[in-house]
Amino acid sequence: MNQPPPQQSHLGAGYYGPPIYAYPQPPPPPNEHFRRLITIAIRAFIAFCVAFGLAILILWLVFRPQKMRIAVSSAYLRRFDLTSSSGTRFLSFDLSANLTFRNPNTRAGIYYDWLEADADFDGMRLGTAGLPVFYQARKETREVPAVFQGRLEIGTPSGSEVEYQRDNATGVFPVDLWIFGRIRYKFGSAVTRRYIMRAVCPARLPLGKVGFSYTDCKVLDL
User: Fold this and answer.
1) Where are the domains of the chain?
2) Which burial class, exposed, middle or buried, applies to 12 when counting CB atoms under 10 A from its CB (0-12, 13-18, 19+)?
3) Is 53 helix (H, G, I), strand (E, B) or coil?
């Protein structure tokens, strides 16, 4: 009797069907590519800012700049008169002063980006003088002139008039010179952010004569 042929298993049989292709991934849409570039740019900018900030902080901690030293080196009060007109009192003044700025640092320069001086008598602002801006190198000293002229209405009799009469009897008037500014420190090629500077100089000014004493100012804010 004839036996049916045994069935053969698929032992290592090759595939002879239609070819199978590996298609590449489609390119990302244009908007996605643009967003990736923006993300990379933002990350690079943030990394740069962080590195720059750390460098400035390290320089600040290493060099630790000192406050500038300010003084009134000379001052002359030409006029300080209290007059009355139609029941209103006026204080006329003419004051000139030389302010000395000293940079005590050996490794840092100072940019004075904005400077202003105010003259106050008994809590009243007599006037404001704009001061020149400048760069001050290490260990450098510079004198800056300030001039205050004008007439101030003080109104009805007040404590300021009493104070004026008391000081006028002695011939010496206490006038506070306030100095305000915005500054930056320079370490080599690196420059810090801006800082607010405020100083007060308690000057005692003899009227119409020489005799002013060199007065140191106190730097309050920095």
Assistant:
1) 69-221
2) exposed
3) helix
* pLDDT, tens only, 84-139: 877 788 899 999 999 999 999 988 999 999 999 999 998 889 999 999 999 999 99
Give pLDDT tens digits for 34-63.
Answer: 788 888 889 999 999 999 888 877 766 776
In whole angstroms, give the CA distance from residue 103 to residue 117: 19
Give residue for tokens 């003080």: 154
Cα separations (Å) of 167 from 164, 173, 208?
Answer: 5, 6, 14
Instruction: Write the burial class of residue 171 (CB in 10 Å: 0-12 exposed, 13-18 middle, 19+ buried).
Output: middle
Q: Is the pTM of this model over 0.85?
A: no
Q: How far apart are CA 95 and CA 205, in angstroms?
A: 9
Q: Answer whether residue 200 shows pLDDT above 70.
A: yes
- Contact status, residue 90 vs residue 151, Cβ threshold 8 Å: yes
Q: How far apart are CA 56 and CA 156, in angstroms?
A: 54
Rounded CA separation 165/84 (Å): 14
